[in-house]
Design a protein that fits this description.
The chain has 328 residues and is mostly helical. It has twelve helices and two strands. The chain has one domain. Helices cover 76% and strands 2% of the residues. It starts with 6 loop residues before the first helix and ends with a helix.
Length: 328
């Protein structure tokens, strides 16, 4: 067996995952509510268990290499999705989105993110197939993103978003109050737009930015479009429930940003090393491959990813407890 995954398995997997996402969307539409901690925990645990089972199926039907690539890709995308969720928290707090509508808003953000990532995956796969040197660009971009992840401040992001919001408010007649999840409402006999439109625009901009980060990162682990897509889908599944499970804790996980930055920097270096190993650019070594360039295995990548997430999460929890002890 060459380890290639059967086409029937790939097709069935995509159909089942799409069906699960649609069912999740219908649940939000039919029963909008703020889930309890127990309900949110069960959903998040269930989706995580489903990802583990899926990885086991990949190992059984394919090989250890495919399974390791899936787990490494899933954990990388999951960590980036949590960072994306952190920005969602800021957006909904800034726009004072009512609790009852937050589930619908989160679902909209996740759907937009999934669509954008699917488009970026198709484009990324096409670029990689045609231009091997694209790994240089992906690697450099991830290194830049890792540095920006560490030095960025919430104040800078708020100033940028506030300028955009002020610009939109000057040009569009927007009400001050929400009307459910409607984008238009009637105020004083006139049809006006609601703040939900600004929320959706902010979510879309955020999703574009994170799609730029996440797709090069996952292609640094696997070049299989199928594994890239399903890793992203599993990373986004349960994200809505995770928001309510973690609540304000997301904002207090101070060191998670550094863990994500470490993952992005590591994958950036891995991509550049891979590009040098398969070099075809004429101005680097005369367009020839560079001998002696080390290739970082997927197993090593998985270890680095798990360690980065684990250490940053534990450090964040330790800081929370230390701060709580000082306050007491």
């Amino acid at each position: 067996m060459d380890g290639a995954l059967p086409f029937a398995f790939e097709l069935t997997s995509l159909i089942v995952l799409v069906a699960i996402l649609i069912a999740d969307l219908l649940i939000v539409a039919w029963r909008p509510h703020v889930p309890s901690m127990r309900e949110a925990a069960l959903w998040v645990s269930g989706y995580a268990a489903l990802a583990v089972v899926f990885g086991g199926l990949i190992f059984w039907l394919g090989d250890a290499q495919h399974a390791t690539e899936f787990f490494a890709g899933w954990l990388t995308e999951y960590s980036l999705s949590i960072d994306n969720l952190f920005v969602f928290v800021i957006i909904m707090a800034r726009f004072a989105v009512p609790k009852k509508q937050q589930q619908e808003v989160l679902m909209m953000g996740i759907i937009i993110s999934l669509v954008l990532r699917a488009v970026f995956i198709i484009l990324g796969a096409a670029l990689i197939a045609s231009f091997s040197w694209i790994f240089y660009i992906f690697g450099a971009f991830l290194l830049y993103t890792a540095i920006h992840q560490v030095v960025r401040t919430n104040q800078e992001e708020e100033e940028t978003e506030n300028k955009l919001i002020a610009w939109l408010r000057k040009r569009i007649n927007i009400s001050d109050k929400y009307d459910g999840i409607k984008f238009r409402t009637t105020v004083g006999g006139k049809r006006v737009l609601t703040p939900m439109l600004l929320v959706l625009i902010s979510l879309a901009i955020t999703d574009v930015i994170f799609a730029f980060d996440s797709i090069p990162a996952i292609f640094g682990i696997t070049t299989s479009p199928f594994l890239v897509l399903v890793a992203n889908v599993f990373a986004l599944m349960g994200l809505r429930q995770l928001y309510f499970l973690l609540g304000g804790l997301i904002e207090r996980l101070k060191y998670l940003t550094y863990g994500i930055a470490a993952i992005l920097a590591f994958i950036g270096v891995k991509l550049i090393l891979h590009a040098l190993h398969d070099n075809s650019l004429p101005f680097i070594n005369g367009g020839k491959h560079l001998d002696g360039i080390p290739e970082i295995s997927t197993e090593v990548s998985l270890i680095v990813i798990v360690a980065s997430i684990g250490i940053s999460a534990l450090a964040s929890v330790w800081k929370l407890r230390r701060d709580a002890g000082k306050s007491a």
